[in-house]
């Protein structure tokens, strides 16, 4: 790069060339006679190969070119002196030629070279030019073998050449547009490379800016529906709703059960429904509103609206539009859109919180099976409490905050205690003793239910060992969530626990719910079979509360069926009683024992005894109590 610029400078500085011949540059004519010519033999000149455009070696002509060769030629023409450049090449031999007395004249000696050239004398400066920003004078040097006569004649001859002639020579060299050797193409090449690099840089910069813009747009667009995504919604929320208008806005979270659509009609149909909704929403919303797909099946809409009645009207009309999809496409069954609406306050700053509040309304709408719910303070407070509970739930198992409660089970004929069901209670540090309804669902959602199950199982094993030692021949049944039984490592975990305790395995019953048998069938089947091999009995819990496949009772080799308490509480008329009786008989016919849950009255007890129910459990007999109290009942 440096070289390129220095080459440039050679050319550019020559434009402002300054010719110096001293003050006596314009010379009177000196006699140029042919008689003089006879006096000279060939004068050898050592040329400067690298002083463009004053003198340089030309690769093409293999000669020195430039102002000085032209000048010497001119002098030769005028005086008859014969100059011959010796040993012309691109290497500079001037110093060695001077030392070896091979040349009389050393050509194109610059100021910087004055000390180096071993000449006995120098001519007056012939010309000067700017090189690398500095004035530089050029002269001829006469070596030791140059005679005094030669020096004088040369001086005279040089004086015959006028300033304007020298200028003409210089101009001629300059007009050649650069040095005619290999530097020119190199320079052009370098300039071209520079230009290409420049163009490339501009192109890259252009694409970078474009890419950055597109990335930003991509980050804010939902690929499936083409409308804004959650980033877009949050961005607009922050930049569009100024503080003074916040209280005018309502934010709705609108969604449908996408999993249901996927399961019933497939992924493509679910996507179609989403696209339809996105289209409808973007068409329907007002100028000051904005919308985005903020979740898998959820859209958010921010809308200016005041008064609960207006909000209800607005959200109803939106839901009507969206739910037209099912009618429009003639689908018999289609999960409808429901909504949660949150009416903003001027103190609401976080979009995440506002969306969360709207989502709570949606959650309640689903639970209550209504089209929409406007989130209210009570609802949000409860949700907040749930969140707090969840935080303290995280290491409740590790901190051994769960307790084993037992609800005694009685023999169906004698009414005597024969066993118990293990039920957990959470001894919450602030809220006191909590029942499973407060935490089981949370633990399931957090994927921590298995931790509780294994903990309760170990507690059960420990009590069974204790009872065994005391000679109490009672059994305990232990609840297992569906996800626990379906785990690949279930048997491994169970084995690791039971090897720590010694008790009769027939006294331990594993309680599974009906839905367990529907999930991950092969692993569940394998796990249940392994448990039976270990000697444990299997009870199917809450039978009759939901979907029951009779073939499961056959395939899974269930030992005990626990009939859900809803069946017993409905056995108040002929049909209800017939159902209960039918179930007990049916299960007995399969060779399975029956336990009836939720026995609360003496009549129920009598009825079940007459029906031949094997075991009973309910508040009529015993409520769940801490482990230590159970021993009192038994005794
Ligand atoms: P479950 O297995 O059906 O347990 C029986 C539930 O019915 C218990 O509720 C018990 O207190 C209640 N109950 C018993 N007799 C009567 C009665 O006569 N009338 C009425 N109304 N209720 C009665 P609890 O203790 O609140 O447990 C609720 C559920 O929590 C249990 O239902 C069980 O599914 C689950 N659960 C409890 N502990 C655990 C556990 O450690 N792991 C798992 N996975 N689930 C557990
Ligand atoms: Ca149970
Ligand atoms: Ca039950």
What does the model show?
The strands form 4 sheets. An 8-stranded mixed beta barrel has the order 15-16-18-19-20-21-22-23, surrounded by 4 helices. Strands 1, 5, 6, 7, 8 and 9 form a 6-stranded mixed β-sheet that branches. A 5-stranded mixed β-sheet has the order 11-12-10-13-14, sandwiched between helices. It is α/β, with parallel strands linked by helices. Helices cover 46% and strands 19% of the residues. The protein contains 23 helices and 24 strands. Strand 3 (55-58) and strand 4 (63-65) form a beta hairpin. Helix 9 (258-265) packs across helix 10, helix 10 crosses helix 11 (308-328) and helix 15 (449-470) runs parallel beside helix 17. One calcium ion (CA) is lined by residues 421, 479, 511, 541.
Mean pLDDT: 86
Q: In oligomeric terms, what are we looking at?
A: single chain
Distance between the termini: 103 Å
Which outline best applies? elongated
The number of distinct β-strands equals 24
Counting helices, strands and paired strands, the structural category is alpha/beta
Largest sheet: 8 strands, mixed, barrel
Distinct small molecules: ligand C2E, calcium ion
Report the β-strand fraction as a percent range: 15-25%
Number of helices: 23
Q: What is the helix content?
A: 40-55%
Rg measurement, Å: 52 Å
Instruction: Give the uncertain stretches in residue-range form.
Output: 1-38
* Largest beta sheet: strand ordering: 15-16-18-19-20-21-22-23
């Amino acid at each position: 790069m440096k070289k390129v610029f220095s080459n440039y400078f050679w050319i550019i500085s020559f434009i402002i060339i300054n010719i110096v011949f001293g003050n006596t540059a314009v010379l009177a004519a000196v006699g140029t006679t042919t008689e003089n010519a006879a006096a000279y033999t060939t004068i050898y000149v050592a040329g400067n190969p690298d002083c463009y455009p004053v003198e340089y070696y030309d690769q093409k002509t293999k000669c020195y070119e430039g102002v000085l060769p032209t000048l010497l030629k001119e002098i030769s023409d005028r005086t008859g002196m014969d100059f011959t450049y010796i040993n012309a090449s691109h290497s500079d031999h001037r110093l060695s030629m001077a030392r070896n007395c091979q040349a009389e004249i050393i050509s194109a000696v610059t100021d910087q070279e004055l000390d180096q050239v071993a000449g006995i004398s120098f001519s007056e400066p012939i010309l000067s030019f700017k090189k690398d920003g500095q004035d530089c004078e050029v002269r001829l040097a006469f070596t030791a073998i140059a005679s005094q006569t030669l020096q004088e004649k040369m001086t005279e001859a040089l004086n015959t050449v006028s300033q304007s002639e020298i200028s003409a020579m210089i101009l001629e060299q300059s007009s050649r547009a650069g040095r005619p050797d290999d530097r020119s193409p190199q320079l052009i090449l370098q300039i071209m490379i520079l230009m290409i690099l420049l163009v490339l840089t501009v192109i890259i910069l252009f694409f970078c800016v474009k890419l950055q813009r597109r990335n930003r747009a991509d980050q804010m667009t939902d690929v499936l529906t083409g409308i804004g995504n959650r980033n877009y919604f949050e961005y607009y929320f922050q930049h569009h709703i100024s503080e003074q208008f916040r209280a005018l806005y309502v934010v709705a979270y609108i969604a449908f059960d996408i999993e249901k659509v996927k399961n019933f009609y497939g992924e493509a149909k679910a996507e179609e429904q989403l696209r339809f909704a996105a289209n409808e929403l973007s068409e329907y919303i007002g100028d000051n509103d904005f919308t985005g797909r903020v979740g898998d099946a959820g859209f958010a809409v921010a809308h200016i609206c005041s008064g609960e009645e207006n909000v209800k009207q607005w959200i109803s009309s939106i839901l009507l539009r969206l739910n037209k999809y099912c009618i429009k496409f003639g689908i018999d069954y289609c999960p409808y859109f429901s909504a949660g609406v949150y009416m903003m306050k001027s103190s609401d700053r976080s979009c995440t919180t506002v969306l969360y509040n709207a989502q709570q309304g949606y959650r309640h709408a689903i639970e209550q099976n209504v089209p929409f719910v406007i989130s209210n303070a009570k609802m949000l407070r409860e949700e907040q409490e749930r969140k707090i509970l969840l935080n303290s739930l995280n290491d409740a198992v590790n901190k051994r905050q769960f307790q084993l409660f037992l609800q005694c089970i009685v023999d169906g004929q004698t009414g005597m205690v024969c066993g118990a069901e293990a039920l957990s209670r959470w001894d919450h540090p602030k809220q006191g003793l909590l029942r499973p309804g407060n935490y089981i669902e949370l633990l399931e959602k957090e994927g921590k239910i298995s931790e509780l199950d294994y903990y309760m199982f170990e507690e059960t094993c420990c009590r069974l060992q204790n009872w065994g030692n005391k000679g109490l021949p009672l059994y305990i049944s232990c609840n297992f969530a569906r996800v626990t039984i379906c785990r690949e490592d279930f048997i491994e975990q169970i084995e690791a626990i039971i090897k720590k305790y010694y008790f009769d395995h027939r006294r331990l019953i594993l309680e599974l719910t009906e839905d367990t048998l529907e999930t991950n069938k092969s692993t569940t089947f394998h796990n249940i079979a392994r448990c039976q091999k270990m000697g444990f009995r299997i009870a199917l819990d809450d039978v009759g509360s939901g979907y029951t496949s009779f073939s499961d009772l056959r395939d899974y080799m269930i030992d005990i069926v626990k009939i859900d308490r809803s069946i017993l509480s409905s056995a108040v008329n002929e049909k209800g009683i017939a159902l209960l009786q039918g179930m007990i008989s049916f299960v007995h016919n399969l060779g399975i024992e029956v336990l009836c849950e939720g026995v609360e009255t003496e009549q129920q007890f009598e009825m079940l005894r007459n029906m031949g129910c094997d075991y009973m459990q309910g508040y009529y007999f015993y409520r769940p109590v801490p482990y230590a109290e159970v021993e009192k009942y038994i005794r």
